[in-house]
């Protein structure tokens, strides 16, 4: 009677073959593979796997300073990926930092910005921003990836559609070695500028009911040039946060948990809910102002009538 041969398991495959297969996985799948068993965890934890994955996901990381910086992250590129790939969880907007708390805000931010169309690169920039100055913390929280006066503005590919644009804007705190994704990957809204006719593509991440971080990419339809890629942080009333408040929000997002869902529809739904809430608040403020105007008009009219009556019956 023939003896049945033992079943072949994945651990029987040569390590080089398994490593080659792991290189074809994306980040979430590679992380899941590392949880299967001890052997796969050892192979999936190889730093070069996560390095290649990060560089393929975010081409801006090829910048020499970032290559040096990420090597000092805890667990190197794997730690960076777990920080930067998932979206930050909604958080409660914290009040303006003051006194000793202000010293804990990031004193420098590095932005890795990649704008692509169906995987083809359009813009790849690294911005280094000194956020420790009183000017930055007192002004509006706004960063521009492009200089509108630049004669070599990036150009969309032929037949490119705004709906197929993807954006990665990653904030990195080089001193605390933490990172966070700033916006959605896919557009949450596409509009036409009512004066210039330019296409305005908006990417956004809603951090709770009180705050959202958004990037506006403005495209000139006639030339295909991308004229503006700017990031702002604004509250639900539509007011841009100050640099100090924006840094406080980013610090909380970096230190907070991450969401697991990656669907573009979820980001678009959150933005629509945020925009609807902002519109309702504006309408409520407008109604209050109209009521105040009516009361003031009524008081003024009553005063005029009283003055008229006093003059007539004196």
UniProtKB/TrEMBL annotation:
Record's keyword annotation contains Repressor: no
Keywords assigned: Membrane, Transmembrane, Transmembrane helix
Alphabetical list of SUPFAM superfamilies matching this protein: F-box domain
Domain of life the protein comes from: Eukaryota
Membrane spanning stretches: 291-313
Name of this protein: (wild Malaysian banana) hypothetical protein
